[in-house]
Design a protein that fits this description.
The chain is an alpha/beta fold and 312 residues long. The chain has 13 helices and seven strands. Strand 3 (148-152), helix 7 (159-169) and strand 4 form a beta-alpha-beta unit. It binds adenosine-5'-triphosphate. ATP binds at residues 84-91.
Length: 312
């Protein structure tokens, strides 16, 4: 029978291809690639070209990721804690990171986003959340050592749940046979945003350039500030007193000029011609604080897209 012979030959060809090239199926399905390198030039270009007003975050994130991902034997997973007011780019930069590690970016099955108010809304279910989180992290890292776990709204997460993540961030070689040392944990929080703003404002009042702010100006301010703040999510957190966070990354409040950059980027992203009159109009519509100086956009760039929907 010609049809039966064709099916047999086809099956044999597929099987031969599969056996002689075991990663054949990776063309159709995303495979675990523990050795997959970071797209360093892509990350640098994205941070420089798309991410505005955050010279410190740009530098720390690039250095931390490049160093971690070129280290063949890291002693612990990478833990970054991003702090700043709403709309300053914490989720945005997390997406940039995911895009430059995994081909499918945030849609990769190795990227896991947890949003405190969505995934862990009720304190009464705390034990259940802890168990689920534990199982989820362990299960995924067992399948593939290189995972990216992003925890948004850390300031709204129960401190006990945060402490439950602690064993995964430790300097252990492995826990019950699973090594977490190649994974990346990113924590996003508004906690410390007030301290960051105060520092930037003081700097401005002294007549200094924002771009001269150094990471050292912020690291202890943030870690001590959130450790001692009951509402930060990190209140007396063992992640801090055991030094398990590798970098505290400050997100500075965005100024009028940065808001304009966001508007221009959004117009270009939508394939629209850049209309500078509209750019100024939308930027002026945003509200700025403190009341006297009107320096920083109180929603960062967060409402830019919605405002453009209205005008475009
Ligand atoms: N620094 C920035 N550079 C470029 N675009 C930005 C920046 N900050 C914010 N945006 C734009 O604003 C949108 C909202 O920002 P994003 O969600 O990253 O803020 P966030 O800091 O995570 O806020 P929240 O604390 O409320 O979650 C982004 O999708 C991006 O388009």
């Amino acid at each position: 029978e010609p049809i039966t012979i064709s099916i047999a030959v086809g099956t044999a060809a597929v099987l031969t291809g599969y056996l002689s090239y075991p990663r054949f199926y990776c063309y159709w399905s995303e495979c675990c690639e523990p050795e997959r390198p970071l797209n360093q030039s892509g990350l640098q270009a994205d941070l420089r070209g798309k991410f505005f007003g955050q010279h410190l975050a740009q530098e720390v994130i690039y250095r931390a990721l490049s160093g971690f991902m070129t280290n063949t034997n890291p002693k612990k997973p990478l833990a970054l804690s991003l702090h700043g007011w709403s709309g300053t780019g914490k989720n945005f930069v997390s997406k940039i990171i995911a895009d430059n590690i995994y081909g499918l970016g945030m849609n990769s099955k190795f990227v896991h986003l947890f949003v405190a108010t969505h995934h862990f809304p009720h304190d009464s279910n705390l034990q259940q959340y802890k168990d689920q989180l534990h199982t989820w992290i362990r299960g995924n890292v067992t399948l593939c050592p290189r995972n990216l776990f992003i925890f948004d709204e850390m300031d709204k997460m129960h401190p006990e749940l945060i402490n439950a993540i602690k064993p995964f961030l430790e300097y252990y070689d492995n826990i019950d046979g699973v090594s977490y040392r190649n994974s990346i944990f990113i924590f996003l929080s508004n906690g410390g945003g007030d301290l960051i703003t105060r520092k930037v404002l003081d700097f401005w009042t002294e007549g200094k350039q924002r771009e001269d702010l150094q990471l050292q100006d912020f690291e202890s301010v943030i870690s001590l500030g959130i450790f001692n703040n009951q509402k930060s999510g990190f209140w007396h957190s063992s992640l801090i007193d055991k030094n398990l966070i590798d970098f505290f990354v400050p997100f500075l409040p965005l100024e009028y000029r940065h808001v304009k950059q966001c508007i221009i980027a959004e117009m270009q992203h939508r394939g629209k011609p850049v209309n500078m009159e509209l750019v100024e109009k939308v930027a002026r519509e945003m509200t700025y604080y403190p009341k006297e100086q009107k320096l920083f956009s109180d929603k960062g760039c967060k409402t830019v897209s919605a405002k453009l929907d209205f005008y475009l």
